[in-house]
Amino acid sequence: MSALVLADYEPRFAAELVPMWRASFEHGVGIVDPHTLAEQHAFFANDVLPDHAVKVALLDQALCGFVAATPESINQLYVRVGHSGQGIGTCLLEWAKAQSSGSLWLYTFAQNTNARRFYERHGFTMVAQGYEPMWKLADVKYLWLRTRDARQS
């Protein structure tokens, strides 16, 4: 039986986390990211880490996913390609819900049907549709609200 553990992000994870994130993004959205890995490392260090709590998922001590969230939103949630359906994303999402202020919003690309089904299965409701100009793709905003029953469980 494999052991899944959530751990606080540490700089030692960056070298593996960023390429895993990129591969998962490209797989889910079906596009090639035009940014260099150096640009993506800089974005993670300068834009994600300062404003978000980041947890990594380790399966038998191997990095298999991560979430970056605030008490109000999820900025990033990715699972390593080939590891879907093992409860990793659910575990990361449950952590984000538990540390939330009672609601969470997030965006995902409209064409990422697996992510959309995942969030909808976990109680998120689509509240807006839009367009992300940098990526030139339609996106969807989702919202999750904690229920009274969820606080008691």
Terminal CA distance: 26 Å
Reported for the largest beta sheet, the result is:
4 strands, antiparallel
Number of helices: 5
- From the structure provided, what is the oligomeric state, counting identical versus distinct chains? single chain
Mean pLDDT: 94
Order of helices and strands: EHHEEEHEHEEH
Shape: globular
Q: In what range is the share of β-strand residues?
A: 25-35%
Relative helix content: 25-40%
Q: Can you count the beta strands?
A: 7
Q: For the largest beta sheet, what order do the strands appear in spatially?
A: 1-2-3-4
**Rg, alpha carbons:** 15 Å
Helix/sheet category: alpha+beta
Q: Uncertain regions: pLDDT < 50 for 5+ in a row?
A: none
Describe this structure in words.
The protein starts with a strand and ends with a helix. It is globular. The mean pLDDT is 94. A hairpin with a 4-residue loop joins strand 3 and strand 4 (74-79). It is built from 5 helices and 7 strands; from the N terminus they run βααβββαβαββα. The protein has a 4-stranded antiparallel beta sheet with strand order 1-2-3-4, with helices on both faces. Strands 5-7-6 form a 3-stranded antiparallel beta sheet, with helices on one face. The protein is of the alpha+beta class and 153 residues long. The protein has helices at 14-29, 37-48, 88-98, 113-121, 148-152, and strands at 4-8, 53-59, 62-69, 74-79, 103-109, 125-132, 137-145.
